[in-house]
Amino acid sequence: MAFNTAITGLKASTNELDVTGNNIANASTVGFKAGRTEFSDIFTTVVVGAGATNNPGAGVTVSDIAQDFTAGTIEFTNNNLDLAIDGSGFFQLRDSQGGVTYTRAGGFELDKDGNVVTKNGKFLQGFGLDELGNQLPVGNLAVSQKESEPQSTTQVDLSFNIDSRDEAEALLRPYNPDDAKTYTFSNSSRIFDSLGNQHTLKLDMVEMAPRFERQEYTFTGDPSPAGTVPDVSLSIAGLPIGPFSVPYTAGDVASAAKAALDAAKSDPSIDFDSRIKSVSVVGNALVVDYFASAGEVDELDVLVTGGTYPDPTVRSFDGENAINAREQQAIDLLPADPSIAPNSTISFGGVDITIQPGDTGDDIALAIAREENAIIERNPDIESVSVDPNNDQRIVVTYKPELGDQPELAIDDSSLAVGVYSQPDAGVASNPSALAELEAGDNSYQGVYQLYAYLDGEELLDIGADIPFVNGDGTEPGPIPIEFDTTTGALLRVNGQNVGSDGQAPLISILGADPTIPESEQRRTSSDNNPRNDLQLDLTGTTQFASESIVKASSQNGFTKGDLIGVSFAEDGTMVASFSNGQNTNLGIVALATFENQGGLQPTGNTEWSATLDSGQAILNPPGSGLNGALRSSALEQSNVDLSEELVALIEAQRNFQANSKTLQTENSVTQTILQIQ
User: Fold this and answer.
1) Residues 6 or more apart from 547 whose CB is under 8 A from it?
2) Cα separation, 398 vs 392, whole angstroms
3) What is the DSSP letter of 326?
4) Pairwise CA distance, residues 420 & 188, whole Å
5) Peptide bond before 479: cis, by omega within 30 degrees of 0?
6) Which of 45, 110, 444, 660 can bridge 291 by disulfide, Cβ–Cβ 3.0-4.6 Å?
7) Would you give the distance in Å from CA 620 to the centre of its chain?
8) Are 421 and 429 contacting, i.e. CB atoms less than 8 angstroms apart?
9) pLDDT score for 19
């Protein structure tokens, strides 16, 4: 009996030495979990009640070699495919025959087909992802996308500050996209077409100056004798004029043109050009004035549609020849009354002006002009007081441009005009309204910029500029107005549409930014205000503050073709493919397994375990969810073997083995003694 007891002790100690030696041997094995030898004693069974309390025991047996699943130290590497689990869970592996095992060793690589595999060729399992990012059933994780297809730019987000201190009058006119002195601010953004070709979207902002455009259409030529030519019909900007039956005059044509424009302005069914401020007739000329915010405007088309008639002579005041948008009021001054006393005074804007008997209108105008500084000091709304260089007896009062239109001057002692004295009919005309020649003011330019867009710096793009007198959604290449609140500097309107209460700017639809798309497919339709195959420009956040003009944010969603340059993993297990064009694509999510009893897992070698009835079935979830730990990329979990403990355990196992050997030796001596007695 003692021999058997000693032998069981020797076997148990040998097992303990084997487990400890295995732990020491795998001290540097990635993902290895140390084993622990567990013992239990052996008692032989006897008949019930037959002296069981005197049973000495039959020795010891190894009841279990338990796995210690405490986490090992995580060490970082330079390989994105090295994975470590920071917490609970196992990687699920599948071999080519469908066998499933589990491991904590995350040293993975890509095979020739792009599958994520272990060093021995087993496939890492994970959740697939569809195009919308929804999880698919568990399968082999693989790099299924080796290149990133190009994507045309459909959205450009741009916000900038444009310096409100910049003087619009300092710009050269007319605007020239190749001359930086003709625009206030410019930005170039990189965009891509559907083939991945790179282009440049150039945006120029031109601040509107306090001046407006005036176009004069002078109709000339005498009508043919009655009956020798058919009745004549013309059109202006597509609006019919006439027909005219002979005899008619050029003035009749100009008046008919004004009537057509006036009728269009009052007809809601006609898309009247809202940039037109007023239409008038002077002699044989049709005079069209535009708001200062309109900038430079193309001339209206005048076409003969029946009979014969010469085209009108067109004179357009734009660029350097534009009309000053400040309110200007002129007063013609007559000679003073010869009978007045020397050193008499008149009041002009609250400032006394000294005149003498016999002063001419020229003398009085010059005397008023000399007091310009005093007049402006008393009347801060006035910008200047001067003598008309073309008429020495005319005094011209110019108001500050931001005031816009001002009321007509009155001739009395308290207004900005010549006071009435002695003989009004001799000093100044008795009809004041005939004296004030008004040039209406216009402050619509304030905080207004014209936005131009060019493709590759050459092609002027259609960004939503309305085609005048065209019903529907007709637009054409050209600028659109961008308006700011002059008190807050915030963006106010984009192409006539108000910025939302949340600060969201209306989108600007740009046609032609992708030259690979046929022109026939790039159009605006009446059923859809947004064009097909367009590019949306969002200027939300753009401001006009008194600080340097800078770009605050800029982004676009297009890109060229890209090649795979690497694979990485996020903490939530997402497998991300990175491409040379800067794009990333989510390919799947690593699946981590947990068990009701991980101690019941069966080791299978290669630091892998298989599920058993004791462990229960694997429960799969992404990292960081449920009981699963987070995933660490470019990291490996080292063995959890503590060499200090193992060396102590080695000494203990050696001691136990020697002690059991001594038991066997002693029992042998006793047996020899007994044999000698016989």
Assistant:
1) 161, 163
2) 16
3) S
4) 61
5) no
6) 444
7) 38
8) no
9) 81
Q: List CB contacts of 534: < 8 A, sequence separation 6 or more.
A: 154, 509, 510, 511, 513, 522
**Residue 237 confidence (pLDDT):** 87
Backbone dihedral angles phi then psi of residue 196, each to the nearest 5 degrees: 90, 5
The closest alpha carbon to 104, from 123, 76, 125, 84, belongs to 84
By DSSP bridging, strand 59-67 and strand 608-610 are: unpaired
Query: How far is CA 44 from each of CA 8, 41, 423, 632, 652, rounded to the nearest angstrom?
Result: 13, 10, 149, 53, 27
From residue 670, give the alpha-carbon distance in Å to each of 304, 339, 409, 657, 664. Answer: 140, 166, 142, 20, 10
DSSP string spanning 580-640? TTS-EEEEEEE-EEE-S-GGGPEEEETTEEE--TTT---EEE-TTSTTB-EEEESEEEPP-
Tokens of 237: 């900007």
Helices and strands, counts by H and E, the chain: 7, 48
Alpha helices in 419-540 (DSSP H): 424-427, 432-435
Among the listed residues 414, 422, 424, the one whose alpha carbon sits nearest the alpha carbon of residue 341: 422
3-7, 79-83, 336-340 — which is least confidently predicted? Answer: 3-7
C-beta of residue 495 within 8 angstroms of C-beta of residue 506: yes
Q: Is 85 left (phi over 0), alpha (psi -120 to 50) or beta?
A: beta
| Joined tokens for residue 479 | 């600028």
d(CA 55, CA 59): 11
d(C-alpha 208, C-alpha 446), whole Å? 7
* The two three-digit tokens of residue 55, written as one number: 């049973």
pLDDT, tens digit (0-9, with 9 covering 90-100), for 594-612: 999 998 999 998 999 999 9
DSSP 333-371: -PPPPTTSPTTEEEEETTEEEEE-TT--HHHHHHHHHHT
Residues in the chain: 678
Q: Which residue has the tokens 């000399």?
A: 370
212-324 has which CATH code?
Answer: 3.90.1160
Taking 60 as the threshold, does the pLDDT of residue 530 lie above it?
A: no
CB neighbourhood size of 465 (10 A): 20
Per-residue confidence (pLDDT) for residue 670, from 0 to 100: 67
Separation CA 233–CA 212 (nearest Å): 31
Burial of 279 (C-beta count, 10 Å sphere; 0-12/13-18/19+): middle
- Structure tokens that stand for 53 in this block: 């309390």
- The tens digit of pLDDT for each residue in 377-403 reads 999 999 999 999 988 888 889 999 888
Helix (H) or strand (E) holding 450: strand 448-455
* Structural tokens at position 122: 């087993």
Distance of CA 257 to the CA centre of its chain: 47
CA 594 to chain centre: 43
Q: How far is C-alpha 451 from the geometric centre of its chain's CA atoms?
A: 18
Instruction: Report d(CA 503, CA 489) in Å as an integer.
Output: 12
In angstroms, rounded to a whole number, what is the distance separating the alpha carbons of residues 397 and 324? 13
CATH 3.90.1160 fits 328-439, yes or no: yes
Token pair, residue 241, equals 């004029």
Report the distance separating Cα 172 and Cα 176, nearest Å. Answer: 9
CA distance 609 to 605: 7
